Amino acid sequence: MRMARKLSTIQRSFLLNISGAYSTTATTALQVTLGTAQLHLQLQQESRFINICRFNQPLSIKDLPLPDEIEIKVSSWAFHLSKHLKQSQISLEDGGNSKNFINIYSDGSKTELGVGCAFCVFVGQNITHRWSARLSNKKTAFQAEIIALRESVKFAKNLNTDQVVNIHVDNRARIQAVSNFIKPNKNTPRNIKKILLYHSNIEITWIMAHAGNKGNEVADILAKQAKLHSIWGRWLD
């Protein structure tokens, strides 16, 4: 982990220069925006390639990521550039006082105990669904939050309702990863945007973290508890 942090510090200066972003921008947000993997993961990939191809060493099964955790860089885009999201579908304003009937709160968490993500669904004042998953320890908190957002959007799509479904996230960078680009170059943000393009009733809005909002607090607790799970994704209700 110490070496990973050192490599991340080295990589950060280059990412800031390439992107022209503010110096306060999170490194993980820069990596997602520019479609660049973490430097220590790139080195691990090169190391494993050499071990397999040159030294004929087998790859341990524990080194393989779970299928749902793989982030693939994509280049093609199936939609015409004129197709775009409605203005109301993406909001960086505080949506903590939403009056909509269906609200989904998502969150991700990373500590020394592991990485987890989760979301919970409120219909009116009642929690109707809760979902959480444990992720690879190599995932960042930002990646956990993006995965939580993806699963929230997929759930909202499957509700098959014409009512507005508000998805609340407490990290603006997550929203920007989906909305800032006409063609997001990462698979997860792109999948999220595809769903939004076809389901205009799904809206993503920012919410202030730890501001006493019940849904946000529940999602935060679920994400932290998810680190104790041994499987990918489980319904708690």
TrEMBL record:
GO terms for molecular function: nucleic acid binding; RNA-DNA hybrid ribonuclease activity. Residues 98-228 form the RNase H type-1 domain. PROSITE patterns: RNASE_H_1 (PS50879). CDD domains: Rnase_HI_RT_non_LTR. It comes from the Eukaryota. Gene3D superfamilies: Ribonuclease H-like superfamily/Ribonuclease H. This is RNase H type-1 domain-containing protein. It comes from Araneus ventricosus. The lineage of its organism: Eukaryota, Metazoa, Ecdysozoa, Arthropoda, Chelicerata.
